[in-house]
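Could you help me review a protein record that somebody else here produced? This is what I was given.
***
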Amino acid sequence: MTDATTTFRVAALYQFVSLPDHQALQAPLLELCSGLGIKGTLLIAEEGINGTIAGTAEAIDGFLAALGSDPIYGGRFGAMEIKFSGAVTMPFKRLKVKLRDEIVTLGKPQVDPTRRVGTYVEPEDWNALISDPDVLLIDTRNRFEVEMGSFAGAVDPETRKFSQFPEFVSRTLDPGKHKRVAMFCTGGIRCEKASSYLLAEGFEEVFHLKGGILKYLETVPEEESLWRGECFVFDERIALGHGLVQRPSSDLDPGDAGA
C-alpha cells in the first residue's frame, strides 16, 4: 500500500510453481526490474520465486503486469502471494536476481509444497484457531525475529536459520501427541514448506496463517489483535506494525536474521 506519506510501494511476494527453466528467467527479470527502476531481491529456483522489491506504484504495477503478459513467463505466476506496504525512502540499495536451489532453504528436497501443504487459515479466522487450547502454536521464524514480536503463547523453536526447523521437529514434536499444530511466519512462505514437512512426518492436522504475519497485521484491527510487538522485515525499514506502518528501530541489527 502507498499513501500520501509514502513514496515507494514495497511488494513481498512468493509462489511455489514448477520453473524448470528458471535459469533462463534471470536475465529477463533483471532487465524488467532495471527498466522500471525497481530495487530489491528476487530468488528464483526450480520450485518457484520469492523476494521483496520496491519501486513507485506505477513500477510495481508494471512489473506484475509483465509477469502476467510476457510470453517468457507463460502465465505461471497467476497464483502469486503478494503483500504490499509503503516506504518513505527506497528501502533497498540495489537490485539482485539470484538463482537458488530452493527459494526458502529447508534442506529437505523431498518436501514439495506444490503437491501438499497444510490447511490455510485466513487472518480473520486466526484468533479463534490459536485460542483453542488443543492447538500447538509454533513460530517458524528465527530467534532474532521472534524476539521482536510474536503471537501470545507461541512456541519459539530457537533456530538461527530455517534449515534448523526439522531438527526442532524431531527433538520436540510428536505426531502422536501433537494432534493439531498451527504455524506462522512473516509472509507465509516458510510455513508452506514447514507444513508440508510436518504432514510428511505424520502429523495429522497442520494449519498455517495465509499471507503470514504481514497479512494479519494488514487485515486484523489492532484492538482485536493477538500479536505482540513488531514484525521484522528484510529491508532497511527493519520493522512494521499494525496496518503495515513502518516502525523505526534504529537500535536493531538485522544482520542476525535469515530466511
